[in-house]
Write a structure and sequence with these properties.
This protein has about 140 residues and is of the alpha/beta class. The protein has helices spanning about 10-25, 40-50, 95-100; strands spanning about 5, 30-35, 65-70, 75-80, 105, 120-125, 135-140. The protein binds adenosine-5'-diphosphate (ADP) and magnesium ion.
């Protein structure tokens, strides 16, 4: 079932992500889709903070491909696969450990989809108007 959301401000997106975080459990994979600047990292950062990391700064994994958090209630790997060239490279990112024991938050996941479980949670932002804080989003794979 596809659920539709409209967030009028960044705080509304953050509130959604806080509620979603509380429903996540080990083994969950959250695919984050949408154009640059749509809010994928806002969602990921909020989930990581809500699950209790003591890190003050949640860097974007744009260049490192993965940032791991092991001080959260469930371990989290936050990935950005935009720069991945070959889907097999995700196995260098410890993906198997997190599939079994943690939560995977993946921005630009498409290249790795063949290696991801079928029951992923998918968050997809629609392209947004420039200079607008309004975000349209669809959610699949979890009852919200
Ligand atoms: N409703 C909203 N939801 C999420 N982010 C918003 C919203 N309105 C404005 N923004 C801004 O949009 C940007 C989203 O950035 P980010 O999450 O890094 O995007 P992405 O990871 O999708 O490239 C941030 O600068 C944030 O402050
Ligand atoms: Mg991002």
């Amino acid at each position: 079932m596809t659920q539709h959301f409209t967030f009028k401000t960044e705080s509304e997106t953050v509130e959604f992500a806080q509620s979603l975080a509380k429903k996540l459990k080990a083994g969950d994979v959250v695919r984050l889709l949408g154009p640059l600047g749509s809010g994928k990292s806002v969602i990921a950062r909020t989930i990581i903070l809500t699950l209790g990391t003591k890190e003050k700064h949640i860097p974007s994994p744009t260049y490192t491909l993965v940032q791991a958090y092991d001080d959260t209630t469930t371990p989290i790997a936050h990935m950005d696969l935009y720069r991945l060239e070959d889907s097999e490279e995700i196995f260098d990112l410890d993906i198997e450990y997190y599939l079994e024991n943690g939560i995977l938050l993946i921005e630009w996941p498409q290249i790795a989809d063949i290696h991801l479980p079928k029951n992923c949670i998918t968050i997809e932002f629609a392209p947004s108007q420039e200079n607008s804080d309004i975000r349209e989003m669809t959610l699949n794979g979890i009852e919200f």
